């Protein structure tokens, strides 16, 4: 654009154009508005004539000669050029084989699309013709949507061929535009936008966020962005077609006429009924495309440009309303909105409540209505010499669109397959057609009675996803099944605990003795007997003895608070309590039986006749309750037996299997992983209470006992993975996880570290006999799921009306089948609420779990959280209301709330919020809670509020509660005291920061008050062992719970040399940097530096005082980073060491791309020196002021001191001879005069320059900030970090 003479007109953009223009400006690589249409031409085509026809169109229509500009303008403008020349692209590929033709054409289309359009200068329409054979061509049309919508393209297409015919007949095409697009823009400028906004505000008022939606693929979410801020996964467009048929379409047209509505309104109302099931609301909204051609604009039908607008269609359904009435309302709303459909959607989003609902799909009618005279038409071939066939428009969509073609009696679901899977679109298509058939058959059918689910959907949801199995032992009791196994394998080890081993016969006879003793006390079926024991052989004999006596056992963990134990004893109505320790002050009016009583040894060992049957109680498990008191769940033998037999059939248990049992017996999963091996002839390895929380002890069990199966919660396995070696885990076959959600990163870590171990995920509430669903072979490369229902178990996913929801839609999980509990002890009303009649299987019951889930198309279930205020911690189900009730009972609190926060390490943290009536400290509240609640229910964090945030209905707004601030420091003095002062404090601080997910933790902070739990403590034990090869016993963490206290223990007791490499920031980054130590020899010197290098994974290496140090460095580095180029950094002496390691890496065949020398001189030709001179030099070095200041508060052990000494000797005697291939980056200090013994500036500059001959790559120099010893001090750190980041960002990748 060189002169105003070339410009015909300048005017503003229409709102819909502005939206596309800003999209192009923000992401010029996006092809969302790129239109590509292809077709086959059959016949004889005159290519120059087709180009001439197109040039006539370009000459006639201003919009085809328009470009868009915005530089130095308050708003963008469209500029119509007086002339533009169109050139058609033509190629003859007919000489190629068909396969090569197709490949070539596909590549051309992709390249053309990738080329895109530059809106500021390009002609925004392109056309190409490829001759593929005699009388056959491929025609490809491309344009940017900003100049043409579908209706306009149809006109341009028709006129293109009309021009061709005119030219063929030696006549001139029309080149004068009667109604330019600018007239439409002028009309838009005159509209009352305020009135339009007011109409849409009224129409969309009160629209709330939906509770459901269409299921997206688990691999990607539409909000996922790549590092550049663009969508991480590019759209992959697919379509699903539906042929409605002319008969069906005619009947729908009749329905429309009968209700005085358009066919558009019929489809919109029908779609609203389908959508209702997915968003789980009677108030639905979706997008619709309107033509945007107002009749009052003269010549609007002849105009070419972008007129389309997207408007929201809101339909409020009433379940009792006849469909015909609903249709009339939809039609009335369409007529009312027509006067205001010029308002841009973007402005509606800002001004109305539609912002609460993402318009994730559009319904579009008659897109690209081609003139049929030219498509598959004999008349066309006779008149033009060719015809078009197989015309296809490649529509772009970020999500999905429904195209309705009434003229063709067809529909098409066009969707982004990166977001939605084809099965979902097929399902929506079938359901939509089914709804259309029902309204067609009866226009007065109530909306609520229209079935969205198809018969095939119902078959899957009520039958196909379940399996019914008749087990041989199905009607037996647990103890009868065990007796059957005793007869098969009497002498096989059944139980290993500590130093004790019991065979099946010994366990059977010992439990028989206890059963005889209990029978003599008059025990009857359904009696409840307490079992209050530590993890021991007595625990197992106690369970079996109670069952054999005919009663049900009630676990009473002795570590529970006394009040809770007393409540459970009283509520259960037990008259007998088996124990191994005195009750103390816990009241109990019944009889206590000591499991160590000699009377048991004298009792009869023979088997008893069974009093109980499959419908009698087996056990009562107490779970958390909303009333502030736990509730007892009554489980019968038939449910527990079904679970155990199903697991036995599922898993490869046999005589070689050894199952490590870690669960608390107060958690019902203990029973499934106890009885499954005991009914299979396998061996149970029972960890003691102390061992069950010590990952190093568990590691030893797994290795020494040759454990094959492990059952535990994911957080325990997370700690185990940290300390298990490949050799330790060699015997493990299956790890079964349950009790809490399985983190995807744990599945990934397990598969990477132990590919031979099968991971299994089990899910199930206590109310359905332990396990409801299970997922075998959990792998990280497919969406995590809780698996399929166990045999004889039915799972329903229901909406709030207890109706089935479609596959893929989130709903509440209800359970039915053989495993259901009898109910809750002494709570008939709560039982009636939770256990209701099964509407799908009359005469049976179903249980309301409160969990949210969705079906996957293969019959597996995906867990999606809780509907109520219940959480799971370490497998225990916790009602937050129970904790709140306890806190509110404190006399100085006026209000309390408890929430759960998910940690990145997979754990769940409880946080208490409270409002004081009188002053009370967080420490006092925690002690108050600990005296009344089990440890796993005591909140970790306590936050005082001036008042509780409330929602509009007056309830506590839990979403508005602040995330607890666990990083605050009370005083500057406390902060100073919190600084690590020795290597072990630095190491532990780094590990604790990661485990507790805190940006900072002081060495005087209490580990548990800072957010640590017993599971975090287990993880700390594992990490210290794994990272530093040192043993930090669990009791030390419990007794000396500050970093300083733990570090003191390790300083005094750790004889093992820590790993000379440590990762200082654990989250995955794209770039990895290995840092070599300055004088002192400890990589922990980079501790603060690593915190600021937030876009880099930092590994710090210590000096290795060993002759084969180079081989060791190579191995350490290549294990930490298994592939790719390596990048090193060395500060001071670390630069010299980094250079030597680079030589070793290159000699071993690895590529180091860059070495950053942070104020490091090249060491060359050291002078000979005696040992005495070296010692004297060392003593002088550690006596210097800078070094004295550095170590003033830094207590180091003899090992670290010796390393520092040997490192100084190594560096002094070092000669950095030879060359490397890596690029060297030398960052030098400011060299102030008062610095310690450094050469003058000229000499220093020369020593920097000595690196010039040390590489065949390039050497770059940078001016750093601060003197030599001060470059990583806080006041200089940020400036030098930015220099290093710049180096890493511009490093050449070869």
Automatic annotation (TrEMBL):
Its cofactor is pantetheine 4'-phosphate. The keyword Phosphoprotein applies. PROSITE patterns: AMP_BINDING (PS00455), CARRIER (PS50075), PHOSPHOPANTETHEINE (PS00012). One of its GO terms (cellular component) is cytosol. Keywords: Antibiotic biosynthesis, Ligase, Multifunctional enzyme, Phosphopantetheine, Phosphoprotein, Repeat. InterPro entries: AA_adenyl_dom, AB_hydrolase_fold, ACP-like_sf, AMP-bd_C, AMP-bd_C_sf, AMP-binding_CS, AMP-dep_synth/lig_dom, CAT-like_dom_sf. GO terms for molecular function: ligase activity; phosphopantetheine binding. GO terms for biological process: amino acid activation for nonribosomal peptide biosynthetic process; antibiotic biosynthetic process; lipid biosynthetic process; secondary metabolite biosynthetic process. CDD domains: A_NRPS, DCL_NRPS. PANTHER family: FATTY ACID SYNTHASE (PTHR45527:SF1), NONRIBOSOMAL PEPTIDE SYNTHETASE (PTHR45527). This is Protein SrfAC. It comes from Paenibacillus tyrfis.
């Amino acid at each position: 654009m060189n002169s105003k003479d070339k410009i015909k007109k300048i005017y503003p953009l229409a709102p819909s154009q502005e939206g596309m223009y800003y999209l192009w400006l923000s992401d010029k690589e996006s092809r969302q508005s790129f239109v590509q249409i292809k077709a086959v031409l059959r016949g004889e085509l005159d290519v120059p004539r087709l180009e001439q026809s197109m040039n006539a169109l370009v000459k006639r229509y201003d919009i085809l000669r328009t470009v868009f500009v915005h530089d130095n303008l308050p708003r963008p403008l469209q500029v119509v050029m007086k002339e533009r020349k169109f050139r058609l692209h033509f190629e003859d590929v007919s000489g190629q084989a068909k396969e090569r033709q197709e490949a070539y054409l596909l590549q051309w289309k992709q390249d053309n699309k990738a080329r895109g359009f530059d809106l500021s200068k390009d002609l925004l329409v392109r056309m190409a013709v490829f001759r593929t054979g005699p009388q056959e061509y491929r025609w490809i049309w491309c344009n940017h949507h900003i100049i043409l919508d579908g209706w306009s393209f149809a006109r341009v297409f028709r006129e293109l061929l009309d021009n061709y015919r005119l030219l063929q007949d030696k006549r001139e095409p029309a080149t004068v535009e009667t109604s330019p697009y600018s007239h439409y823009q002028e009309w838009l400028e005159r509209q009352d936008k305020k009135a339009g906004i007011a109409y849409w505000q009224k129409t969309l008022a009160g629209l709330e966020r939906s509770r459901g939606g269409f299921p997206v693929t688990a691999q990607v979410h539409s909000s996922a962005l790549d590092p550049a801020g663009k969508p991480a996964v590019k759209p992959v467009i697919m379509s699903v077609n539906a042929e409605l048929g002319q008969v069906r379409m005619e009947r729908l047209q009749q329905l429309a006429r009968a209700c005085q509505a358009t066919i558009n309104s019929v489809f919109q109302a029908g779609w609203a009924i389908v959508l209702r099931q997915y968003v789980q609301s009677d108030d639905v909204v979706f997008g619709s495309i309107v033509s945007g051609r107002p009749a009052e604009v003269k010549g609007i039908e002849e105009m070419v440009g972008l007129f389309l607008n997207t408007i929201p269609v809101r339909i409020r359904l009433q379940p009792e309303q006849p469909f015909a009435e609903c249709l009339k309302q939809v039609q009335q709303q369409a007529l009312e909105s027509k006067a205001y459909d010029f308002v841009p959607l973007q402005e509606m989003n800002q001004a109305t409540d539609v912002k609460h609902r993402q318009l994730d799909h559009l319904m579009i009618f008659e897109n690209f209505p081609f003139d049929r005279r030219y498509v598959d038409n004999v008349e066309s071939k006779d008149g033009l010499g060719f015809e078009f066939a197989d015309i296809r428009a490649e529509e772009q969509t970020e999500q999905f669109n429904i195209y309705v073609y009434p003229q063709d009696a067809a529909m098409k679901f066009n969707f982004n397959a990166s977001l939605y899977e084809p099965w979902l679109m097929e399902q929506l298509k079938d359901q939509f057609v089914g709804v259309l058939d029902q309204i067609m058959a009866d226009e007065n059918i109530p909306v609520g009675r229209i079935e969205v689910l198809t018969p095939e959907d119902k078959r899957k949801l009520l039958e196909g996803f379940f399996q019914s199995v008749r087990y041989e032992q199905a009607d037996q009791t647990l103890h009868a099944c065990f007796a059957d196994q005793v007869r098969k394998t009497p002498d096989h080890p059944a139980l290993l605990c500590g130093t004790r081993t019991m065979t099946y016969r010994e366990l059977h006879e010992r439990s028989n003795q206890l059963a005889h003793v209990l029978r003599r006390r008059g025990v009857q079926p359904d009696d409840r007997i307490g079992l209050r024991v530590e993890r021991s052989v007595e625990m197992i004999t106690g369970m079996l003895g109670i069952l054999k006596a005919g009663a049900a056992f009630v676990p009473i963990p002795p570590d529970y608070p006394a009040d809770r134990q007393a409540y459970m004893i009283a509520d259960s109505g037990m008259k007998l309590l088996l124990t191994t320790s005195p009750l103390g002050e816990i009241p109990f009016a019944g009889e206590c039986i000591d499991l160590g009583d000699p009377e048991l040894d004298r009792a009869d060992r023979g088997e008893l006749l069974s009093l109980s049957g499959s419908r009698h109680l087996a056990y009562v498990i107490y779970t958390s309750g909303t009333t502030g008191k736990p509730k007892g769940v009554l489980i019968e033998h038939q449910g527990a037996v079904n679970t155990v037999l199903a697991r036995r059939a599922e898993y490869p248990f046999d005589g070689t299997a050894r199952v490590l049992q870690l669960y608390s017996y107060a958690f019902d999963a203990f029973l499934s992983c106890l009885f499954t091996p005991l009914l299979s002839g396998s061996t149970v390895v029972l960890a003691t209470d102390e061992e069950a929380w010590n990952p190093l002890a568990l590691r030893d069990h797994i290795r020494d006992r040759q454990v094959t199966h492990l059952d535990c919660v994911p957080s325990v396995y997370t700690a185990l993975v940290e300390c298990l070696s490949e050799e330790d885990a060699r015997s493990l076959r299956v790890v079964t996880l349950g009790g809490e959600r399985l983190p995807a990163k744990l599945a990934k870590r397990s598969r990477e570290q132990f590919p031979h171990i099968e991971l299994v995920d089990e899910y199930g509430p206590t109310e359905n006999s332990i396990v409801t669903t299970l997922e075998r072979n959990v792998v990280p490369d497919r969406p995590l799921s809780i698996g399929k229902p166990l045999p004889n178990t039915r799972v329903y996913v229901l909406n709030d009306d207890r109706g089935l929801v479609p596959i893929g839609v989130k709903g509440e999980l209800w359970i039915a089948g053989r495993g259901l509990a009898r109910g809750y002890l002494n709570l008939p009303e709560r039982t009636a609420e939770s256990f209701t009649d099964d509407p799908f299987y009359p005469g049976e019951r179903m249980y309301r779990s409160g969990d949210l889930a969705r079906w996957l198309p293969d019959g597996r279930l995906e867990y999606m959280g809780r509907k109520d205020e219940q959480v799971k911690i370490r497998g225990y189900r916790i009602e937050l209301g129970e904790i709140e009730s306890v806190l509110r009972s404190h006399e100085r609190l006026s209000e309390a709330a408890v929430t759960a926060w998910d940690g990145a390490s997979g754990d769940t943290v409880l946080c208490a919020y409270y409002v004081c009536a009188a002053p009370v400290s967080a420490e006092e509240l925690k002690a108050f809670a600990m005296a009344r609640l089990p440890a796993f229910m005591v909140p970790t964090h306590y936050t005082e509020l001036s008042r509780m945030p409330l929602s509009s209905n007056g309830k506590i707004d839990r979403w508005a509660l602040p995330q607890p601030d666990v990083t605050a420091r009370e005083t500057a003095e406390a902060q100073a005291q919190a600084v690590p002062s020795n290597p072990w404090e630095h190491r532990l601080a780094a590990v604790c920061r990661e485990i507790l997910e805190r940006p900072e933790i002081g060495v005087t902070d209490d580990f548990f008050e800072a957010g640590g739990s017993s599971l975090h403590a287990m993880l700390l034990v594992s990490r210290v062992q794994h990272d530093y090869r040192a043993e930090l016993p669990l009791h030390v963490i419990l007794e000396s719970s500050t970093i300083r206290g733990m570090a003191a223990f390790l300083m005094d007791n750790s004889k093992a040399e820590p790993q000379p490499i440590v990762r200082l920031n654990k989250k995955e980054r794209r770039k990895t940097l290995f840092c070599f130590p300055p004088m002192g020899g400890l990589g922990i010197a980079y501790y603060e530096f690593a915190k600021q290098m937030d876009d880099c994974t930092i590994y710090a290496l210590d000096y290795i005082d060993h002759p084969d140090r180079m081989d060791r460095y190579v191995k350490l580095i290549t294990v930490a980073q298994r592939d790719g180029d390596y990048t090193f950094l060395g500060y001071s002496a670390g630069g010299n060491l980094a250079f030597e390691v680079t030589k070793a890496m290159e000699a071993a065949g690895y590529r180091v791309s860059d070495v950053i020398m942070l104020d490091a001189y090249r060491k060359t030709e050291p002078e000979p020196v005696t040992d005495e001179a070296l010692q004297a030099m060392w003593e002088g070095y550690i006596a210097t002021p800078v070094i004295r200041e550095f170590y003033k508060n830094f207590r180091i052990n003899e090992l670290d001191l010796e390393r520092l000494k040997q490192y100084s000797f190594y560096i002094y005697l070092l000669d950095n001879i030879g060359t490397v291939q890596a690029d060297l980056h030398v960052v030098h200090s400011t060299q102030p005069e008062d610095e310690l013994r450094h050469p003058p500036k000229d000499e220093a500059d020369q020593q920097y320059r000595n690196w010039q001959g040390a590489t065949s790559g390039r050497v770059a120099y940078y001016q750093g900030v601060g003197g030599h010893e001060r470059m990583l001090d806080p006041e200089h750190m940020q400036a030098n970090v930015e220099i290093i980041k710049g180096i890493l960002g511009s490093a050449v990748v070869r």
